[in-house]
Amino acid sequence: MKTPISEDKIDQVYAQLSEMPEDLIGDLVSRLEREQPALLGYLAAVDDEEFELNERESILFLGVLIWQIFKSSSYTIRKISERKIEQCIDLTYDMIEKFSVEDELDFERYLPALLENYPQPTVLRMLVEEAFGEAEEGEEPEFRDEAALGAFIHLKIALDAILAGPMFARSGQFQLPPPG
Question: Structure pTM?
Fold first, then answer.
């Protein structure tokens, strides 16, 4: 397994993208479409009833950020198929089901187990901070409270797909412990 990506690398790529003019971000999205059309399709297909426009844009931005973090870290990202994304969705929802109580995700129990066993915990932690983090004074949070969990799950699935998702579970490199 590759070395986990550092917080410094994440901060560096985040700063580069945050300072990038919108037309260059558009060029990056076009490049993502050429290189990983299924991933872009997944990121762009968020439910407009669940997420407001700015939240959908944030999901797309964070998806591009994840992709760029790995590309700039010399990771080889295999072509992600729609089938691979579906497998990642199934794996994620299977884990959520295992950590649910009365059809509600026990996030307090799920997150520490997930972070402890995830192959790229620093990238995953960044997604948690982006989805659930507090806004700077005078700014709106990235996601409303009712949309934060859905955004996190959506972005985690994209990250799983980049990492080849279910392959980690099959290989024993990434497995959550049983709840309890």
Answer: 0.86
